[in-house]
Amino acid sequence: MHRKEASFDITTENTGILKARILNWTRQFNILVYLDSNGYSSGYDRYELLVGTGLYKIIPESSLLTPGMSSADTSGNWIMGHICYDYKNVIEPRLHSKHTPYTGFPATRLFIPETVCIINKGCTSLTINSVNSPEDIWNAILATSPDIDVTTIPQVVFNADTDETTYKQHIDTLREHIRNGDCYEINYCTSGSALLPSPPDATAVFHKLNTLSPAPFAAFYRWDEQYMWCASPERYIQRNGGTIISQPIKGTARRGTDKAADDAIRTQLAADIKERAENIMIVDLVRNDLARCCMPGSIQVNELFGVYTFPQVHQLISTVSGTLKQEAEFADIIHASFPMGSMTGAPKYKVMELIEHYERFRRELFSGTIGYISPDGNFDFNVIIRSLYYNASSGILSYATGGAITWDSTPDGEWQEMHLKAWALKRIFT
What we know:
The protein is α+β, with helices and mostly antiparallel strands. Helix content is 28%, strand content 33%. The protein has a 20-stranded antiparallel β-sheet that branches.
């Protein structure tokens, strides 16, 4: 494969307008990954924007996701794609997913795009790597309008899969599982769906979501007839050389109506015993997961209970890192840590059984991951939450939200938190 690469000075360009031009330019592709960090900086980020368009080659699951197999044959290429939550059934063959799939995404899909566009973190250059002419692509982007009409997005009424009474009964039942020692934290979620008579403008939907809820791991993903619009604040796993990091989120509080109220809520969240307990349980789980692919004694917690602010919520985020074993390949890291603890609970196997029993929908892409592997073998993958999904074949539009249930959880509190997260998604279609 002969690829060409060129970098272009964008210091005279407005970054927001350039992103909008690129987003509109991607309309011509039925396969695309658009990853936007929205100006957030955690000290671990590598790019402001990373876009892959077109299909050059699908990477067989056996090449990258079989533990013990070398990924050397895929090195030197940009690889993008997703892993669905249902991939848990491959990692743990005794598990299953009985609910009807809606979104239609395959359990895994990793591929080499025809073209990759990268805006560096300093927003000073756009690098284009492609099987086609980078100069022609750059000129086409500059010639593309940045205007995106969000008024065409239809109004939609979603139908919830679980009513309030049933939801609260499930919370009480899950607390009994905790009291009986079956688990000590479980991520319980519900979904909403609607049938659209005609497809929405997918680019406009993402633009509106990303404007109302900009997030550090935002993603617009299309695979033929399947679409995802994601406003995730959470990193699942990143490799940088010999270091691996994970940044689980557990602990949520709504934003205040003014600065004084907002600051008070931040302070309260930082000290909240229940929210801190949720976070530290998952930190311990992540430490254990990473230890399976890292050098003994290298696991450390770089940050515990960091309070981070997003448009609708404040969150508690912790950072866990480790030094990889020399022989650890991509598949070994995924099999050691997937699904991410923040979207399962602990102990992981037991709570995945309980999730399948009590939830009324198939998670599919929700609580899975999307991201990239760079030519140097480093990678970065998010946690797919705060997202909408659309299957053009069936016309089904859906979302899923939830939270971590511990012994200190209350049915009313969990119901309100779930609705807060769902409201931020549903308002895109209101």
